[in-house]
Amino acid sequence: MESLSAHLIKRGKKLSYLLRHDKSYTFDEHGWREVSDLVANHGFTMEELCEIVATNNKKRYEFSENMTHIRARQGHSIQVDVELAEATPPDMLYHGTAKSFEDSIMNQGVQKGKRLYVHLSTTIEAAIKVGARHGEPVVLCIDAKRMSENGIKFFLSRNGVWLTEFVDAKYIKLSKKASPDLKS
Ligand code: HQG
Q: In testing the pocket of ligand 1, which one of 58, 115, 141, 157 has its CB within 8 Å of the most ligand atoms?
């Protein structure tokens, strides 16, 4: 039988799709979706949503103050404004990707693709995990300090993900294969 945590992870993935990528629903301009819609049309209970919001490993979701609406804090492909805070980034940020994308990125820069922003991590460990979703992971070190000094905007989501529109290849300081020595 499926464990409770495995079940919650599966339901969390469904929620992720429904809050970030579902083009069939008309979202509020700030990315909010009605809880009543998730209950009536997608088989969620309020209790289950509360549990996912509270236990989600990356704190991906949040309720509106009156709990009638829910949204993802980042990661959307749908056009919404989740009221991200512009902020000065740390000097160095990391982008985890797959080795097979590396040459293309070194030519074209890091592009946001279908999402609204390029996602950057504060640690090499986190970036390795992001990259591993796509294949053999590679970590690109991003000179966020120089980007910021050159007027490029950064945003920090409420769950700690750094976001920016595009990373030109000139800001990629070095690219290393994710290896045990890099992790240490
Ligand atoms: C790559 C997860 C070729 C880019 C994660 C990435 C993250 C290029 C892929 C969040 C390219 C897009 C986002 C270029 C970029 N040539 N490939 N010029 N520019 N790429 O999934 O950053 O768990 O849209 O490197 O933790 O992997 O869902 O982006 O490999 O924070 O909350 O194109 O998703 O968060 O893939 O992941 P994605 P991502 P959650």
A: 115
Tokens (6 digits) for 66: 């009156």
Q: From CA 89, how far away is CA 150, in angstroms rounded? A: 13
The tens digit of pLDDT for each residue in 41-84 reads: 999 999 999 999 999 989 999 999 999 999 999 999 999 999 99
> Any residues with Cβ below 6 Å from ligand 1, and which?
16, 58, 60, 75, 97-98, 101, 104-105, 108, 110-111, 113, 115, 119, 130, 133-134, 161
- Tell me the pLDDT tens digit for each residue of 155-175: 999 999 999 999 999 999 866
Euclidean distance between CA atoms 33 and 68, whole angstroms: 9
Q: Is the dihedral of CA 22, 26, 28, 29 positive or negative?
A: positive
Task: Kindly report the pTM of this predicted structure.
Answer: 0.91
Atom of ligand 1 nearest to the CA of 140: 25
